[in-house]
Amino acid sequence: MADILPQIQQLFIKLEAEDESVLSLMLSASGSLNRMGDGSGDPEVARFFMGSSPEPLFQQLIAGMDEKVFELAGRYELPYEGGERLRLTLHFKGEKLDTGFEFSYGSESMGPPEELLEIVEQAVALTDGWYEAQLMKNKSN
Question: Is the separation of the CB atoms in 25 and 127 below 8 Å?
Fold first, then answer.
């Protein structure tokens, strides 16, 4: 599965807690950006915004990824060990690429591999400034 990173044109991340979306994020190579929430489930920050960023956020995220992570692509139902029922989805698309990950697990379970959690954390961190600006604009309207 070599040379996947250059094929990726769009990344979609979704985190659900008890079947409620607490984070939804789409980044594309064109600069398009959609985001809802921060993963906390806080309704104050669970607003959906669509737009774009002049900063190369997508390229920064892809540059920090390791292709080896795609060897794990697939759906996983991890043993439930208590806590909230969570589902994490990462979907990568390109002209000739359509792959991803889905993990169902409990918040007190082991959870997805660290490499995937790092992708999610970095995507959120990269888009935080843009998202916070959208929240501020929305409050002032």
Answer: yes
Burial class (CB in 10 A: 0-12, 13-18, 19+), 54: exposed
Residue 116 tokens, joined:
């995937």
Tokens of 8: 């990726």
Token duo for residue 100: 């991803």
Report the number of secondary-structure helices (H) and strands (E) in the chain: 2, 7
- How far apart CA 34 and CA 109 sit, in angstroms, is 29
- φ, ψ at 13 (rounded to 5°): -125, 135
pLDDT in tens, 26-79: 999 999 999 999 988 887 778 899 999 999 999 999 999 999 999 989 999 999
The whole-model pTM stands at 0.93
Hey, what domains does the chain have and what are their CATH numbers? 5-140 (3.30.1560.10)
